[in-house]
Amino acid sequence: MRNPGTAAVLSLLIPGIGQFYNGDFLRGLFWLIVTPGFWIGSGGTLGWVCHIISAMTAHSRAKRKNSWLPGRDGSRVSR
To answer: Parallel, antiparallel, or unpaired: how do β-strands 76-78 and 68-70 relate?
Structure first.
């Protein structure tokens, strides 16, 4: 299980790292590429927005992944 708070803090520090922590490697790569582009392209204004969105998505994905547990037969069962 992944801690949603840890995922959010990691992505707030470095966008995409919280997604890597959650196992979402393509999403993490996306945030690692897009956020610096917005920092540079907007003079920093939209970079903060990307940081916050990245942290929010890392938090929500960790919660969503934790809400599904494998059942006895290997199928996924919602909590």
So the answer is: antiparallel
Residue 59: partners with Cβ closer than 8 Å, 6 or more residues away: 4, 5, 7, 8, 11, 18
**What's the average pLDDT block by block, 10 residues per block, for the chain (79 residues)?**
91 93 94 91 87 93 82 57
d(CA 74, CA 51): 36
35 three-class SS: helix
**Alpha helices for the chain (secondary structure H):** 4-13, 17-22, 25-41, 45-66
pTM of the model: 0.79
